[in-house]
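So, can you check what follows?
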Amino acid sequence: MNSKKILLHACCGPCATHCIEALRKEGIEPVLFFSNSNIMPREEYDKRLEAIQQLAKLVNVELVIDKYDNEAWQGGIAGYEKEPEGGKRCTMCFTYNLSRAARYAIKNGFTAFTTTLTVSPHKNSEQIFCVGDMLAEVASSQGTPLTFEHYNFKKQNGFLNSVRLAKEYGLYRQSYCGCCYSKN
């Protein structure tokens, strides 16, 4: 069977577990795109990178690792540091990371992308969908057809399944979203 491919922005290995499984059940083969310059400190980023690499090997999925550039991410959210979790800072963070995924998708011939971020019960899927749609619209208006697929991965116990699979695979699970502001 020929699978349709999709670029799957992956925030971490544990969240990606359920998303990969759900997409494959639909006959869609994800290519993981690990782009998370928001993760701080660097040691935390390295732990999450190791977990996603471990997952990619375990479930035989292609993994692309974007450049880590926390300084650029800080510039992208400048002025929003004091925003509450789930507010404008998070929207700016989603925009930063998903724009990197959209650019990669365009340069590498993908017609669709999505993200694992919606598996978390702590993330507003509609907020993420708005950012993804805006980025796809910009790409399409510039002559490159791109779709942001609306997968609300937390539905049907997606988060609980991701926790179960992460334990089964022995993946490192973090205790905060990633940036120093979410840790506080």
